[in-house]
Amino acid sequence: MKKLSTLKRVLIFILAGVAVFSTFFSLRLWFELNKANSHLKSYNKLMQLGDYIDKTYYQDVNEEDVLNGAMKGYVAGLNDPYSAYMTPNEYGDWQTEESGVSVGIGVTVQLTEENFLKIVEVNSGSPAEIAGLKADDEIIEVDGESIQKLEYQEAVSRVRGEADEPVTVKIKRGTQELEKTIVRTEIKDITSYGVMLENNIGYIRISAFKENTAEMFLTALNTLIREGAKGFVFDVRNNGGGLITSLQKIVDPLLPAGEIATATYGTGEVYTILTSDANELNLPMIVLVNGNTASAAELFSASLSDFGKAELVGEQTFGKGIMQNTVQMEDGGAVTLTVATYQTTKGECYHKVGITPDVVMEEDYSEIDLDNPDPSKDAQLRQAISLLSS
Q1: Cα 176 from chain centroid?
Q2: Cα–Cα distance, 360 to 372 (Å, whole number)
Q3: For residue range 81-133, what is the model confidence (pLDDT) as tens digits?
């Protein structure tokens, strides 16, 4: 048998590599062309519809409104209540809301399975409180339009509106339906504060994770430590979540060094989203949770629990373990898309499951003001203080 020369071996190897690459490139090109062709067919259908409307509709067509509706509809087709397209105005409202200074009626809302806006918290002294709105009320209409017909971001934007302008909302309270006209105002959100309770127990309320939350939280934490706190109760009941960047700054001083939580994207790639340095608070902690504790608030609770830093007291949490990214588009609007699931590095994803507390306790919140902690009226808070004191 003749042996191949080194040159021939190299040539055969190169030719084989070229053949493999060509096959791969051809398949990739076929896939991309097929995908482009599918998109082209969809766009042709949309253009045909547009042409028909232009020729047939009985009034002039506002092209911007139609395009915005198409953009919203495209994202709505994902059937994901947390993904949405925002117009430039809606995006501006969203940015203002996330900053912690907002215009509105003074409520924190959460999307229900029926696509209504459930009020989970009413700000003290807000127009909503003055009008008589309460936690667990469901906003079912805004200015005569059903909330179910609107995307989440658009519904929130309609309720928020402009300062000093009225908005009429219809709410469902049990079997009752009530209509309220409320004048919106500019509101600076106090998303975290702290007070010292009996037995030198520090209590810190976190109502949301916004841009201004971490600064408020750290101020309260450091103040209570200086005042001699021997343990902490962190209250994230009725906290619907918020920004991971804010959560990062809050968990860092509480937890040991290392990776705390990761996100798993649709591609299968896994990225670290929460870390902590070597500074760690070594005091006993309790986290209060309930069925309205969701998203970043659940990740906060899971992080302290999974790393053995705190016990959880209260009710099964909401179960939102997915992450959204918001990206600005060329037109000045923005798209919010669900991009990943997340979990702590020591636990499992709790999406659609929730987190079961170490101490399960039901609570009637009708007589409880979370802005003014009162253990005599709040059995869950009373239990937390008892656990820390003992």
Answers
A1: 29
A2: 23
A3: 999 999 998 898 888 878 887 788 989 898 888 889 999 888 888 999 999 99
| Tens digit of each residue's pLDDT (9 = 90 or more) over 149-207 | 887 878 888 998 888 999 999 999 999 999 999 999 987 788 999 999 999 999 999 99
Write a three-state SS string for the chain: CCCCCHHHHHHHHHHHHHHHHHHHHHHHHHHHHHHHHHHHHHHHHHHHHHHHHHHHCCCCCCHHHHHHHHHHHHHHCCCCCCCEEECHHHHHHHHHHHHCEEEECCEEEEECCCCCEEEEEECCCCHHHHHCCCCCCEEEEECCEEHHHCCHHHHHHHHHCCCCCEEEEEEEECCEEEEEEEECEEEECCCEEEEEEHHHEEEEEECCECCCHHHHHHHHHHHHHHCCCCEEEEECCCCCCECHHHHHHHHCCCCCCEEEEEEEECCCCEEEEEEECCCCCCCCEEEEECCCCCCHHHHHHHHHHHCCCEEEEECCCCCCCEEEEEEECCCCCEEEEEEEEEEECCCCCCCCCCCCCCEECCCCHHHCCCCCCCCCCCHHHHHHHHHHHC
**Beta carbons within 8 Å of 204's beta carbon, 6+ residues apart:** 192, 193, 194, 217, 220, 221, 224, 232, 233, 234, 235
- Maximum Cα–Cα distance for the chain, whole Å? 97
In angstroms, the CA 174 to CA 147 distance is 17
Q: Which domains, ranges and CATH numbers included, belong to the chain? A: 101-187 (2.30.42.10), 190-389 (3.90.226.10)
Residue 29, token pair as written in the block: 């090109």
What token pair was written down for 243?
């920004």
**How far is Cα of residue 298 from the mean position of the Cα atoms in its chain?**
10
Q: Would you say the pTM of this structure is higher than 0.85?
A: no
C-alpha torsion sign, points 197, 212, 344, 380? positive
